[in-house]
Amino acid sequence: MANDKKGSEVPAHMTAVASRYLVAGERTVWQGKPATIVIIGRGVLLTILGIAILVSMGLSQDWPSIAIAVVACLLMIVVDKRYGLFIGLTGIVAVAVVAILGSNGAIWLLTVPLALALIYLMANVIYLSRVLFIISDQRIITRYGIISLRYAELDIDRIQNVTVLQPWYERILGYGDFYFATSGEKGGIDYQRPGIKLMSGGAVTWEDVGKPFDVVRKVNEVIHPVSGISREAIVVGPPPGIKDAEERLRQLSDLSVKGLISQQEYQQRRDEILRQL
């Protein structure tokens, strides 16, 4: 484990990935992805249901087989309310056509919902390999995409509050959705895409994050440092004397050691204090 600062343990290989997006003096506090059980699990369930439709209607076109196939289509809608809805409705149409025309010449239609489910599973595998959530001591960073790569960052100072949404089924599986409320800017990423949403009210959303309350603790450690010294604790003004300058330099050094300010900020504020002596 790479432990740069207290409360910021991140696996070494994950830190290496995050370092591509960090500036000098910035450190990773947490890095992760959406829960695999959710992203991959949905595709696996849709694929299993697609197989159930094909097998049930392929063996016979009697009423029990039709009922099983229709139930499988309806379950697809429950599994995923967006893509599952489309695949499930496609399955219902295919089942209806095969039930009316019989297996002669129409049985191939039953492979359509299965093929769509497999495409959905493949897309989710690619998506999971590219999405990335990072909390640093300065920013919230988000990367996602399947074909096109999308990237967004949010300064810690702009975060107003953090909300976790965790319905009962997400609580059982141990994941939830994050809403980082900002000062109101919508940002530049399509808020209808999965994985990240920059809502019209200014909230950045991370969906399906595992152990959400552990991540909340990491965010709060950055927003509200336990040292009690804020990043703006050093106020540059008329120098009251050398003793006061020494105290301000000591506080500035503490901020730098704790990683609450970058090396560049440290040097700039140190130079300003020294110039006023």
Structural overview:
It is built from nine helices and ten strands. It is an alpha+beta fold. It has three domains: 2-34 and 131-223, Pleckstrin-homology domain (PH domain)/Phosphotyrosine-binding domain (PTB) (PH-domain like, Roll); 38-127; 229-277, no CATH class. It has a four-stranded antiparallel sheet, sandwiched between helices. The longest helix has 24 residues, at 36-59. The two termini are 43 Å apart.
Task: Using the 3D structure, state the CATH architecture of the largest domain.
Answer: Roll
Count of alpha/pi helices: 9
> Structural class, please?
alpha+beta
| Helical residue percent band | 40-55%
Determine the strand fraction and express it as a percent band: 15-25%
Uncertain runs with pLDDT below 50, 5 residues or more?
Answer: 1-13, 185-196, 227-240
User: What is the level 1 CATH name of the largest domain?
Assistant: Mainly Beta
Shape: rod-shaped
State the main characteristics.
four-stranded antiparallel beta sheet, 277 residues, rod-shaped, alpha+beta, disordered N terminus, 3 domains, PH-domain like
A few lines on this structure:
With 277 residues, the chain is of the alpha+beta class.
Give the arrangement of secondary structure elements:
Layout: E1 2-3, E2 9-10, H1 12-18, E3 28-32, H2 36-59, H3 63-79, H4 83-101, H5 111-130, E4 132-136, E5 139-144, E6 150-155, E7 161-165, H6 168-173, E8 175-181, E9 196-198, E10 203-210, H7 212-223, H8 242-257, H9 263-275
Antiparallel strand pairs: 1-2, 3-4, 4-5, 5-6, 7-8, 8-10, 9-10
Helix pairs in contact: 2-3, 2-4, 2-5, 3-4, 4-5, 8-9
